[in-house]
């Protein structure tokens, strides 16, 4: 702890880490990343180097040639103009577009660094900029699918 003292570093809890992770749009194992989803469904296809050899390459290549079943997206839950509660999504909430169920939230938190209620989730047939609804505590919350994370979208802070 002494090494980080000059930077104000100190112990943090799991909810603080969740908030920071969601602000950056980072998934976590078992919530967003699991054997259930393929790399192109969670935005990790850029890490699959098909020009190199690896175990099960033919299967991965075959899957990547097909459209994603669902897409991992980052949502900004915007309470303006809705009958929203003062609560954030945490995971498991359904996502609707034009009254039709299109997905579910996997993680959510209030992003204190950016002042936004955010959620990660899997959706079908939706794109960045689309307005959807997330049911939080049984009440519809207007949400917008974000093109990029609100905190350090270019990764400049991470790279120093």
Automatic annotation (TrEMBL):
Indicate the segments forming the Aminomethyltransferase C-terminal domain, all copies: 71-152
Q: Is tRNA processing tagged as a keyword? A: no
- Keywords associated with the record: Plasmid
- The answer to whether UniProt assigns keyword Nuclease to this entry is no
The superkingdom listed in its UniProt entry is: Bacteria
Domain (GCVT N-terminal) ranges: 1-52
Give the matching SUPFAM superfamilies.
Aminomethyltransferase beta-barrel domain, Folate-binding domain
Q: Which PANTHER family match?
A: AMINOMETHYLTRANSFERASE, AMINOMETHYLTRANSFERASE, MITOCHONDRIAL
Q: Identify this protein by name.
A: Glycine cleavage system T protein (Aminomethyltransferase)
